[in-house]
Amino acid sequence: MKLVEQIVRSLSTTQLPLARSNQRIQIYSQNLRHSRKMLGLKTSGPAPPTPCSHFLSPNPTTATSRHFKPYSSFRSIKMSAEQIVEHVVLFKAKPDVDPSKLSAMANNLNSLTSLNQVVHLSAGPLIRDRSSSFSFTHILHSRYKTKSDLADYSAHPDHVSVVKEYVLPVVDDIMAVDWIPTDFSGPSEVPPGSALRVTFLKLKENLGENEKSQVLSAVGGIKEKFPGIEQLTVGENFSPGRGKGFSIASIAVFKGVNELEALESQTELANEQKEKVKDFLDGVVVVDYAVPPTQSASL
């Protein structure tokens, strides 16, 4: 009799986990039917036999594929997005300054490319200044991953030293504009030998967000009109204190100077783009610059 009681007791303890497991499966099935109902999926039909069968199924239903995107696709989109902070400084050299001092300024500015915060940096004399109100002679163009990196670069002792010793003694005027491109694509570093067209726009006072959006849209659409542009960045200046009132900025990157010069033959397209925004503008700065083949070369 004792042996029978031991067998019954043994069977009871063995079945208890199975009962709990079946209870969990029933609860899972109820939750799954409720979730499918909330998603608008068909709820009729038998529940899956085990909790993992849905995810292991080699032939998911069309409805399931519509609601759940593969992780790999999300990851590729996430990894392709990149933020770049543009920093452009324009310099007007003193009229009688020794050319060797201007070369020293450019060389020392280019040496700042070694700072950890810098993604890209290039400095040197302009090809031309197309502005009527200013007479800039030199440019520094650099890129950073964040605003914080730009701030750290600006405060870095090496940067402060170069500005004090090699820049301020030889220039009459400085203008700086910073922006985050609204839609950045392409390489973060501008290849040596490239040519840049840098444009700053000053908007008329009391313009609304709608007019500002029209200007940004018109400038951003330039790349489609001019296939010679390798890369175009457009954005709003977030450092107004140094920008002389210019609030919209863009950089068009060309493969080289020849490609930039070819833009001059497309005056009709250029005028078409200007007509879209001219009523909103109170000033324009346009400068052209050729990135040196090697940054270490004397400028």
From TrEMBL:
SMART domains: Dabb (SM00886). InterPro entries: Dabb (IPR013097), Dimeric_a/b-barrel (IPR011008), HS1/DABB1-like (IPR044662). Signal peptide: none annotated. Residues 85-179, 195-289 form the Stress-response A/B barrel domain. It comes from the Eukaryota. SUPFAM superfamilies: Dimeric alpha+beta barrel (SSF54909). Homodimer. This is Stress-response A/B barrel domain-containing protein. The gene is LOC107763852.
